[in-house]
Amino acid sequence: TRGRVRPQSFTRHFYVNRNRHMRHQKILVSSLGESPSVVTEAIDKLEAEEGIEFDQVITIGTWHDKARQSADLLRSHLPEHYGERIFYCHYYPQHDETTRPVIDPITPEDNILYLMLAAETLRGFQRCENLYVSLAGGRKAMSALMVMAAQIYGVKKLCHVVHRQLDEYLERMMDVENLNRAEPEEQKELLHPELTKIVATQLPLVSLFPLATDFRRALEGDQAIDVTAQRLLVASRLLTEINGQWLPTDAGQQLRRILNDIEELPEPSDLAPNEKEMNLHGLSEHDDLRLLAERLRYFQYAQGVVTAENQSQISFARSFYTPYGRLLLEANPERPDTFLITVAKPSEAPRLRVFTTAQTMKQAERVQRSLKQFLGWEV
Q1: Mean pLDDT of 201-222
Q2: Which residues pair with 131 in a beta bridge?
Q3: Whole-structure pTM over 0.90, yes or no?
Q4: Residue of 361, 320, 306 whose CA lies nearest to 337
């Protein structure tokens, strides 16, 4: 437990044998654009070829209207088709009042935001032995950025899913707007074609993770680094020689900011979602707060969730909107690993105490950003 005192409400089962579980989760991360079928095809084909059943499916899209429609369709379709065994989560590149939302990753700024999200997502599942990445969805730039993230943090399989008979007509039929208009049986046939019609091509991947520390040092200006890392950065135009010193280019400085930002996160939890302690007294089976707590099992940095008394009114100025309503998320300076989540309505309802792997306030602030995004933060 790294020297931290755990709350008495947690049982011994909560924090022993912490290295056995999360690594066995089977997780698919996919880019997502205007057609959700690329995700269902990847699930079906990879499960058949690998002889597995996925536990989690994560898609990374943009704020483009059709990408959001695709995520909404998958959110309703996956539980209907696969049952509750698959947890589904969709991520958008984060933005605030200083940055516009990423509609299409066209500008350098858009690319940086998308790469940050892809890299952070893969980094959170780094300990998993069965992490698959599909590049079939979205723009080519999105696929390229996913490859870069996969090279840095490593995956079991990097693949591209292709429909053998895809033509202009079928592509139009698989557009999310058409799928939303289709009858249930037609929609199912389009989302789950015969596996003989689908090809999952494994792409070569050279993991650069062993050199990640040297990359960061070099991009910080350290001259005493591994020569292999230096050559790779120079060949990628991320490092250049100026007055006898190797210094980062503009692109190198952007990558440095991404890597440093991600490294502010603590280590993800070693516990699989079903191993995380849930002490939800006072919440009925269909209570929205219970549904929110159950979702938090899948947050990579969460260790457990318990209910707590709500002794304060919510501050709307500090709250944010999610599919669960307006939430207030607070960090505890005295316990960096502890967050409180309060729901705006009703004020007398209990709130959630979320225990995470954060050990310092700097890590807590970084986890707070990720937690807001995980909960569906919309600015």
Answers
A1: 85
A2: 27
A3: no
A4: 361
